[in-house]
UniProtKB/TrEMBL annotation:
Residues 40-53 have a biased composition (Basic and acidic residues). This is WD repeat-containing protein 4. WD repeats lie at residues 183-225. One of its GO terms (biological process) is tRNA (guanine-N7)-methylation. Keywords: Nucleus, Repeat, tRNA processing, WD repeat. Required for the formation of N(7)-methylguanine at position 46 (m7G46) in tRNA. In the complex, it is required to stabilize and induce conformational changes of the catalytic subunit. InterPro entries: Trm82, WD40/YVTN_repeat-like_dom_sf, WD40_repeat_dom_sf, WD40_rpt. Pathway: tRNA modification; N(7)-methylguanine-tRNA biosynthesis. PANTHER family: TRNA (GUANINE-N(7)-)-METHYLTRANSFERASE NON-CATALYTIC SUBUNIT WDR4, WD40 REPEAT PROTEIN 4. Residues 35-57, 375-421 are annotated as: Disordered. The lineage of its organism: Eukaryota, Metazoa, Chordata, Craniata, Vertebrata.
Amino acid sequence: MASLGACGEWLVSTYEKKLIAVHTKKNREPFVFDCSAAEQKPKDPEADNKSDGSEETGSDKILAFAVSSSAKLVALTDDTKRLVLFCCEPSWQVISTRWVVRRCTSLVFTEAEDEVWAADKSGDVYSFSVVEPQKTGELKLGHLSMLLSMTLTPNDKYVVTADRDEKIRVSHLRSPHNIQAFCLGHLEFVSSLLAPPGHPQWLLSGSGDGTMKLWEYESGRRLQSWDLKQLRDMPNSDTEKEKRSAVSRIAGSPGGHHVAVQCERVPSVQLFGMAQGTEERLMPSSRLTLPHCPLDLTFDPQGRLWVLLDSRETPFLVYTHTQDSWQCDSESPEMKRVTEALQPHWEALQDSAGLESRFQHLYKGNFDNMASYREKKQQRLQQQNEQGGKKRGPGKGQQSNGASKKAKKGNQPGPVTKASS
């Protein structure tokens, strides 16, 4: 899985087992962190004695990463259950390497940057201290289903978690057992969350049902909903594969004036802008048609949209918003610098790319119970007809049940009556 993020003037990308940071303004040496060569978890002798030799091993693939609001800290987690904390100013260095209990799906820094929160596949959320970088994680809350996305609201008031069972839960950050609200309405798993900058009361969510919804998260009230397939003018399809296009990324520009939405395996990006009126709303503004499917996207501090593509020839595109439209800046010196710096890592990028859905196993199974019922009913009726035919056709010389009963009745003596004198 390839991903992209902006960390100040650094553009950070992850490909398979590597995190690569490239400075977009200066010709500085890229920072490369390879999880396959990272610190290994110390062996526990007691655990080795109890082990039966079937212990699960990870692949070192990066599963999630996060950038702090000040762009001074970065964290990643991988398939080997590492949690690595970095400092990127004034230079990149590893602060600590810790281990999570289970494989994580989402990471997020608190606004105070004193903690990094990790959501995992079992539905649990742990917090890890940044101030004490060697301290083990603390369990904060749990879902009954796999967690897929997590975000924090402004001022670290709430933690918002989304799971495979379509639920979005809003919990108080400092007392997560205290649930503020649920945002319910998606028909499939919730795959992406965003608390857009500049709008402290809003929450955006994307789902495997192909929709994006806008919520007032404190009350759980839904404000708006968009079917992204309809916005792409896609005709209705009878094939299940074409129906399924999960929202894989929602990104907000600095200040919250623009929102970019990416759906997996779709070669376009849908953009939304603020509609000013009696009350603020989001409105679809434009759609960027891409030469290849996007792997990820992000806004940089200048508000430019960076798109990572599934292409060796054109791995990046940069878009700038000017005069109410988005223009591709193909001659951007920053894009050329990033592209050149990542040339030695194209093989890893190709391993991460591809059109294979990373959400396919999360969809609900669809069963046509009515068709099965009709088929079984038809079989029962056919069996009954066959059995009924055998009963209605007696063999030669045999009497029917009705005739036999009448014969028996005729042979029985009648009641005795007293003769009249």
